Amino acid sequence: MPWSNNDYPDSMKNLQDDVREKAIDIANALLEEDYDEGRAISIGIAQARKYMDGDEHRTEYHIQPDEEEWILTRQHTGKAIMREDTKEDLLETAKEYVNEHDGILVIHKLDGSVSDRLYE
C-alpha cells in the first residue's frame, strides 16, 4: 500500500516534515520493488535522514550484553537506560525509545561486535 503525506506509518510521525516526505518517497519506491513493508519503512527513514540532514547530530544508543542481561546505553556513558533478560525483549522497547529521542540504535552481538545499525 503506497503511503502519502496524509497517510503514513506511525514510525514516521516524529520525523520532520521534509524528512518524512523523503522517507515516504523512498519507502514507496522500495515497495514497488517488492521489498517487505517493514524493511521498506526502515530503509526509507534511514536514507531520508542521511539525505536530508546527516547523522552527525544524532546520539547513538547501544544494545549490548551485560553479564546475564542485555542493556541499552547512551554512547560514551555505560550507564544502563533499560535492562532485559533477552536481546529480543530489549529490542522491543529500545527501538521506540531511540526513535522518540531521534537516535541511532547500534545492536551488538554477544561477543561485543556490532551486528546492525538502525536509523529508526
What can you tell me about this protein's structure?
This is DUF2188 domain-containing protein. The structure is a single chain. With 120 residues, the protein is α+β, with helices and mostly antiparallel strands. 39% of the residues lie in helices and 23% in strands. Strand 2 (69-74) and strand 3 form a beta hairpin. It is elongated, with a radius of gyration of 15 Å. The two termini are 20 Å apart.
Summed up, the domain count is 2
Number of strands: 5
Strand line-up in the sheet with most strands: 3-2-1-4-5
- The unreliable regions are none
End-to-end Cα distance: 20 Å
- Which structural class fits the helix and strand makeup? alpha+beta
- Proportion of helical residues: 25-40%
Q: Could you spell the SSE succession in H and E letters?
A: HHEEEHEE
Ordered list of secondary-structure elements with their pairings:
Layout: H1 17-32, H2 37-53, E1 60-66, E2 69-74, E3 80-84, H3 87-100, E4 104-108, E5 114-118
Helix pairs in contact: 1-2
Task: Please name the defining characteristics of this protein.
single chain, alpha+beta, elongated, DUF2188 domain-containing protein, DUF2188
Compact description:
By secondary structure, the protein is α+β, with helices and mostly antiparallel strands. It has three helices and five strands.
